[in-house]
Amino acid sequence: MNSFYNPVAIYFGQESVQACAEQVRKQGSLFSRVLILTRGGGVDRNELLAPLIDALEGKHTRVLEVTLNNPDIVDIYKLLQSVGDFDYQMIIAIGGGSVMDAAKALSALQHAQIHSPADVREYITNEMYANKPSLAPWIGIPTTSGTGSEVTCWATVWDEERGCKYSVSDKRLFADAALILPELTVTMPLRLSVATALDAMCHATEAYWSVHSNPISRAYALQAIERIREALPQLKENPNDLDSREKLSLGSVLAGLAFSNTKTTACHSISYPLTLLHGIDHGIAASLSLAVVLKHNYATLIEPDKLLRAFGAEDADGVQRFLKSVYAAYGLSDSLKAYGVAEQDIETIVAHAYTKGRMDNNPAAITPEELNLMLASLL
Ligand SMILES: [Fe+2]
């Protein structure tokens, strides 16, 4: 399919804050109550965001610090309780992927009758938001560089009780605007920086080979991979270097655009049980299988040389060597065992690795037997 759709107004860099604030001011006539979700630490009071906050003058605002990580249906229920009777008409999310996922969930759940976590589960699994005439508009301001959530139209909500994850997906969940300020990512700890960068690298690579891949997604994907590949060694040398932070922020949003139209594939599908059952950070979990899945998919790739070149590699082994060098530089392991996965866990991981819309989005089918062998090779 050669069509591409993404309606998010993207503002990149300090010099674009005013323009973003102007958009908010113009939209202001349509709403009077704004919910601001932040990851805390006073990020909403960052002086870079002052023009945007000023644009909300005269509005009723409520600021909620969102401390959750990988939001679960219980987290979303608690968040709705904290919102209480504040009838939000717009949401501004300032934070990482979890904060933006929470904003999207709240957008979809606006005005829903929710009295328990089970109601959240029912609302999401039955896609009850799809019948609503409108969803609450939202603006995404990422403070990490990896999720791409500010330019995609779905959110991940986990269900720990049932051991699975749900996707809240609707074209109306695209943000009205995304404001990308690399300066906001400078305080990210190195481990989170590399984990989120690896996540973005997977978004881009998986968009490149997805069954829904298209020339526009592939162009974004290659640009994303190149920038992230260049920035990762640079960031290790100097974590405060704004140049590498800019490359990672741009790489992340380009990767987001790439997979906003394709969704992810096998690497993400395999990562979900690694995160849910073994607590491996999302981006690291997704990247652990990237090289083996690349080898598995290789024969299906369109213009494989371009993908390899973006990684600075000549063959799939070169991509694997690059990833290993990143893990080594940041003190991470590329072995599942180091993350607490034992041989006897593989069967359960395989059983939970076939997420609909992700694994079947991979260009080459992976049988459970093949996945078993892949995971065993990563132990
Ligand atoms: Fe991801």
Automatic annotation (TrEMBL):
Q: Which InterPro entries match?
A: ADH_Fe/GldA, ADH_Fe_C, Alcohol_dehydrogenase_Fe, PhpC
Which keywords does the record carry?
Oxidoreductase
Q: From the UniProt record, give one GO term of the biological process aspect.
A: antibiotic biosynthetic process
Q: Which residues form the Alcohol dehydrogenase iron-type/glycerol dehydrogenase GldA domain?
A: 7-180
Judging by the UniProt lineage, the source's domain of life is: Bacteria
User: Any idea where the Fe-containing alcohol dehydrogenase-like C-terminal domain is?
Assistant: 194-376
Is Oxidoreductase a UniProt keyword of this protein? yes
Q: What's a Gene Ontology MF term here?
A: alcohol dehydrogenase (NAD+) activity
What is the official name of this protein in its record?
Answer: Uncharacterized protein
Identify the species of origin. Answer: Paenibacillus agaridevorans
